[in-house]
User: Fold this.
Amino acid sequence: MAQPCSAMSDPEEPAPPAEVRLALEEAPELLAALEESRDALLQTDHLAELVMIETQIQLLSRKPGFR
Assistant:
């Protein structure tokens, strides 16, 4: 999974946590929601579009002087 682009982060926003822990009882519900979201993105071809946008943002963020 791609890392968030720090160059586009709001400096006033706290950084995301290094890890997230869930209780075992919470995991199936979260997994189901993530799978449903993934399936919806795949069915509507939005996932491919998001990947293309992510790639362009990564390339842009590596250019000298980009902040």
